[in-house]
Structure formats: structure tokens, C-alpha cells
Amino acid sequence: MRILVVEDEKRIADFLSRGLESAGYAVDVAGDGRRAVDMVHATEYDLIILDLGLPDIDGLAVLQKIRNRKSSPPVLILSARDQVDDRVKGLEGGADDYLVKPFAFVELLARVRVLLRRGQPTPEKLQVGELSLDCIRRKVTRAGENIELAPKEFSILEYLMRNRGRPLSRTMIVEHVWDMDYDGLTNIVDVYIRHLRSKIDDKWPVKMIQTVRGIGYMLDEPERAEKSS
Asked: Which end of the chain is least crowded, N or C, by CB within 10 Å?
């Protein structure tokens, strides 16, 4: 899941980035409205957190530009404007939620998860063979046994399961899960795949994470993976 934070106060932007990344999300930051609009046109985001008091364009104008696109992600307004009229304008302007500063991060995270769940057409629970992933409760089981995953491990597994049977390149995985571009040198994906395999594959006789030579990785039921290879 990739989130765009539109916030000109660096302290707040950094706080949001660290917190959301710790929760397993990839985060981009735009410090002004024009940059935010450019980034929305260039990248498909799952959610946008939008401040209204931007230095160049008012946040409501940015919201309108986002909503004028054919498809646009959920928008959570995060603003110091706490009057009822401000909230009404934001929600009527197309925002999906409105949170007033100062805020508790746990509340923001809860609202983020609700909006992502609302905007996600795919199931809340993913199942591939005996492997099950609960996107909301963030729980993973295989053959009924609970498996503890770190946030990034969970995000990679969710991405693999949502794309079951589809080979995913290291580039695709890095750009979806991390806030960085793949530089062709990093082995970060391979490291995390090893971690995942040690938790969801190593103790079971059949392996679900497949290495696709020359491409990257794929997750599927072993029988289906063998038929497609």
C-alpha cells in the first residue's frame, strides 16, 4: 500500500512518514500543492493524506484537482482548521474523512486503515491454499498455525498473495512496498523473501514462494505453479 502525505511542515511530515512506514506502508511526501498534483498524476496511490494550509495552493484546490481525475484514491484531510464550516467544505469537496490537528497517531492510523479497506475492491481476507492472510487484523496463518511477520514482511506477502500466480519483479516489489526506486543493485527483496520463506515455507514440505528465474518471485499453490511452469 502506497500513501502520499501532502504536508509543508517538515516535522509533521517526518512524523507521519515514520509512523506509517513502521505500520508497513510505503510513503511519499509532497511539501506543496503543485508537487502533490504532479505526483498524483505520475503514481497510483492507495491513499492521500492532505493538509489544507499549503504554501502555494490551498488544499481544497488540490483536492478538486485530485477528484477531477478519472480515478482517484481516498483522501484524508489533516488540518488545523477546526471549524464546522471547514470540515463541511472539505467533505463536500470530495474528502473521505477529516481529522483535526493536533491528533493522536493511533486514531489517524485507524482512519487510514478504514479508508484503505473501503477503497480496496479485493477481499479483506486472502487465501492461497493453506496460507491465509487477514488484511484488517494483519494476521497470517498456514494450516491453522499463527505466523508472526514484521510490517514489511506482511506487506510483501500481501502483495504476492494479491497477485497469486503472477511473477513479480524485484522492481515491482520494491516500488510497491518501499519508498524508493529500485537501483538494480540492492538485494533487499531477496533478504526479505528469505525471511518470509523461513516463516511460511521452511517447516512445511510444499513451498509456496516460487523463484521465477530472470524475473523475481511468485506465490501460488504448488500444483498450480507446477502446471504453469
From this structure: C
